[in-house]
Write a structure and sequence with these properties.
The chain is α/β, with parallel strands linked by helices and 339 residues long. Helix content is 38%, strand content 17%. Pfam families: PdxA.
């Protein structure tokens, strides 16, 4: 029988829709069968999620000491019950220090278990950056916090995924006026390599990757800007020559999705935050997934927020979270194959 990956599943922010989404995911038997699932969760909040979703599932509660020798039963998640070091009760429907601390502490546990080899990947329900900053986050986002936790100082970027199309970006959370000064041949190369390795880990044996131009019409040979000539094309040529990766472009922003569909490409490297993600979200916002790209541990989540206003209403749609879990399973399988 083929070995299943073990996926650490984290509730995200209990003040939002995270526990409800976890309950709706794990109430599906076919999802539970895809992997060994290690829940790291406040038991009370997990059960509140089941109550909100009006759906239940069986699990086995275990201790951290049991992890090294624990044998999963097929379709039965294991729960490590975790209480936040801050004993205050959660306040639902808003960002608080309490939920921020809980998010950081449970994610830290998940990373520790991955580093110890107990899990191959991590999937977390939606979290809130404001709450995390209130709870002690010193970085602008969770990706750079994950990089610190894993002692990684190389190139990182969020990967956005809808269906079978993956996207990375050379620059991300910076002002638009700073994009050009943050582009270089090496940064474009790093971004291409990151996306290629992530696709391979997700089971795409020979990724076909599009690279976007920066300027209108791809610069028109330098008439509308020369970054394509001085940065983007040299990066593409170096990667092709050194790594043999199957690259296409550079394509102007407004025709990239057309080329991806026409040539059945697997991924897109964009130059800035919204360049390709706008088209990707139009393709399927309700199915969007974010992958923490660059670090050694595959980590995924739904590409939407905590939806504080929906807490307790049983209206959260789990489609994106299910997609995030499925990618965590695929990438976890990739880790197993590389061991």
């Amino acid at each position: 029988m083929m070995q299943k990956p073990t996926v650490a599943l984290v509730l995200g922010d209990p003040a939002g829709i995270g526990p409800e989404l976890v309950a709706k995911l794990l109430a599906q038997g076919e999802q539970r069968e895809k992997a060994n699932i290690l829940l790291i969760a406040d038991k009370d909040e997990l059960h509140k999620g089941m109550e909100i979703a009006q759906q239940t599932f069986s699990y086995e509660e275990i201790t951290e000491a049991q992890l090294p020798t624990y044998s999963f039963q097929s379709g039965v998640p294991a729960l490590i019950a975790y209480k936040c070091s801050n004993p205050k009760p959660f306040e639902y429907g808003k960002a608080t220090e309490q939920s921020g601390m809980y998010i950081l502490e449970t994610l830290k546990k998940a990373v520790e278990y991955a580093q110890a080899g107990y899990v191959q990947s991590i999937c977390f329900a939606p979290l809130n950056k404001q709450a995390m900053h209130l709870g002690g986050l010193k970085y602008r986002d969770e990706l750079h916090w994950f990089a610190e936790q894993t002692h990684f100082d190389g190139f990182v970027c969020e990967l956005n995924v809808v269906d079978n199309i993956w996207a990375s970006r050379v620059t991300s959370h910076i002002p638009f006026k700073d994009i050009v000064s943050n582009l270089s041949i090496q940064s474009v190369i790093d971004c291409i390599l990151l996306l290629n390795s992530s696709l391979i880990r997700a089971g795409v044996s020979q990724p076909k990757i599009a690279v976007q131009a920066l300027n209108p019409h791809g610069g028109e040979g330098g008439v509308f800007g020369d970054e394509e000539l001085t940065i983007i094309k040299p990066a593409i040529e170096q990667v092709r020559e050194k790594y043999g990766i199957d690259l296409y472009g550079p394509f102007p922003s407004d025709t990239t999705m057309h080329e991806v569909k026409r040539q059945n490409l697997d991924g897109v490297v964009s130059m800035y935050h919204d360049q390709f993600s706008t088209a990707l979200k139009l393709l399927g916002f309700e199915r969007g997934v974010t992958v923490q790209g660059g670090i050694s541990i595959p980590i995924t989540t739904a590409n939407h927020g905590t939806a504080y206003d929906l807490h307790g209403k049983n209206v959260a749609v789990p489609t994106a979270f299910e997609a995030a879990f499925n990618i965590a399973v695929r990438m976890g399988n990739g880790v197993l194959k590389s061991e």
